[in-house]
Write a structure and sequence with these properties.
412 residues; alpha+beta; NADH Oxidase; 3 domains; four-stranded antiparallel sheet; 13 helices; 40% helix; globular
Length: 412
Amino acid sequence: MPNNHLPQSGIVADIYNQLGPNERAIIDGQTTTILRNLLIVFVGLKLRLQFTGWLQYMLPAPVMLAFFFVAGIAYLLGVALVAKLFAFAGLLVLTLGIFDLITVKFRLHPREPLPKRNDDLDTFDLMRARRSCRSFQTRKLTSDDYNELMESVRRRSTEPMIGKAPIRFEYVAAPLTVWPTVNAIEFIVAIAPLEYDRLAIIDVGRSLQKIVIDATRMGLGTCWIGPGADHQSVIQHLGDRFDQAKDHIICVCAVGYKSRFIPMFIRIFNAQFNRRLPLPSLFFTDSQLREPLDVDADPFNRFGRNYETCQWAPSSYNGQTTRCIAVMENNGSRHKEKRRLLRFDFYAVTTSRYYAPVAVGIWCANWEMGCETLCIYGHFAELCEEERGVQDKIEHFQLPRYDVSWVLDESL
């Protein structure tokens, strides 16, 4: 285990060993043994329940019971006002939970209108406006929307890739077992070769993000789903389109029409994960991530809102595991104004083998689309240490981990 304070054997250790890297990272951040063990058990129980389709509606129950428990204690102590307040809060949570069950789980609500397209938004506003959709209408895409979406999949899949390994996207119209999104019935499944190829995973993130932005322009809701997808459910619905001896599912993306009816827990979930690190924590001028990049200084200010679109790019649990380094020409001059900007290097700051490179690919897509809008041209390439001017040998597992570079076609 990565944390020496974690139990080496027993039920808690078994649960911990079955968790994914994202869940482990959260648990490893706890310093108190009792709280850490309780968190392991809670996360393990959550993982068991999340694919039943009921967890989204069960999570408010502990809050409701806690309110009623405090109300009971207050009543026994004779503090009537406190008892009434907590009892009211418990009833409110109970009412909201019942409302969620009726309107979302059992879908008893008025028919919702189709969303409007976003053709009036420019590329930057479109990337900035895109948000994860956690609750979908149960109606299928119209034939026009379906055809336009499939054209986007075809076009983005045939664009030049960074790596050489083939990737593909399969459309599935079925209620797959996913978490925490509710009522999604249409998905795009991203598939790469079974043999691990990091550039292929980056290409998945880059290509699928472009599809997501195309869908956003159409007015469709989308939700990236990595650890929240039950791969066995996905494989079952893919059928002959998936070869377990050759293929690996990287992630799935729910797509459809956004619903206004969202479970209370998911509203809270969205609010908690709708935060982003400031730009000085994401963009740097050195590979050790010690010197923040001044995005307002020349020539970096020519990239404008590109920094913002990367800042708000989606990632697993919105972990923001990608960093970017601006590389200037090393011509021996001490004057920065005499040095030219050559490229931007993209790094991962976690050891995640799948979600980190997907996040890097998403950044690459947003950066590339933004640069095209600004008419600044370049290309992606995986540069060796010599090409990057690295003097010392760097191991692949060392963090921050270099992944790919966006090289300007003409230095600024």
